[in-house]
Amino acid sequence: MLCGAPRHTRVVYDVVNTSCPIAFQRFFMVYTVPSCGFARCYVIAGSRGLMVVDPGSRGAARAAARLIRQELGMPLTAVRYVAATHFHIDHIGGMGPLLAACGPETRLLFPPPVHDYLTGRRRLNRMAGWLSALPPVTLAAARGLRRLEDALPATLAGIPLPLLHRRTELSFPVERCDFPRTGAGLPGFADWEILATPGHTEDSTSFYSRETAALICGDLILHMKQDGRGVLNAFCWNRDVILDTLVRLRHTIAPRTVYPGHGEPWEGGERMLDNIVKQW
Ligand SMILES: [Zn+2]
User: Ligand 1: distance of its center to the CA of 219 in Å?
Assistant: First the structure.
């Protein structure tokens, strides 16, 4: 497991300011939730609490909660945000159960186009690569499933199939959702930028910390083979756009750790994005 601190490090929690764990005041760290679904789920420690990214199943919600309580020694009321990199079922399927376990102040974060999905003004993107690109990723990701709930979403929203792409039944109240524009900062997570990284879908976003050179990239880049070379996702809405996104990121950011939507996080040098492989 790759994370910002030894996995069993206990964090002293500041009981005076319950949103500010002492050990996290100087660092913005990412914790990888152990395999718990088809997609990877991460917990970011900010200066005023936590952000959970991409809890994609009931099992992911449970595993993230367990990591927060047992590994970080923090209550779920410390979770300020539960965020999705994009509106696909394997990334949003555990947001409702996790939100229900958090405090009343916790907010859900979605990319701006998701607002239009939920109001019926826009459909999910049609995807290419169903037969060539998706099966190997799904089969490899399925090896990380531990329990039935790891594969069970709390909602059928976010399935990019033509007959289902209008399904937007949610397992959480829309009043708890925010749609921050890309480029915006988040209170308590000042070092983290929300980057527009379209291509896999038009709403795809990534989270990038310049301070720690960490990139949580959703389904932009995959790392299933654990060989230290990420792969540009060929299962996508628009291959020209996803390639443009990668080229743009190479010129604008310099991550040294990438946390992918599927596969294991890995570290590299400042030019690690130059090594991303395109397989089409
Ligand atoms: Zn996706």
Answer: 5
Tell me the per-residue pLDDT of 23-38, one tens digit each, with 9 for 90 and over: 443 456 999 999 888 8
**Residues within 5 Å of ion ligand 1 by Cβ?**
88, 219
Measured in degrees and rounded to the nearest 5, phi and psi for residue 210 equal -70, -30
CA of 187 to the centre of ligand 1 (A): 26
Neighbours of 172 (CB within 10 A): 18
Taking domain 22-275, whether its CATH number is 3.60.15.10 is answered by yes
Rounded distance from Cα 6 to ligand 1 centre (Å): 29
Prediction pTM value: 0.88
Under 8 Å between Cβ of 77 and 83: no
Domain boundaries, the chain: 22-275
Q: In whole angstroms, what is the distance from residue 221 CA to residue 276 CA?
A: 8
Please list, in sequence order, all residues whose beta carbon lies within 8 angstroms of the beta carbon of residue 47, skipping any fewer than 6 positions away.
Answer: 20, 24, 25, 28, 188, 189, 190
267 has which bridge partners? 257
* Cβ-count burial 231-269 (b if 16+ within 10 Å, e if not): bbbbbbbbbebbeebbeebeeebbbebbbbbbbbbbebe
Q: Please list the ranges in the chain whose pLDDT falls under 70.
A: 1-28, 165-168
232 Cα–ligand 1 center, Å: 12
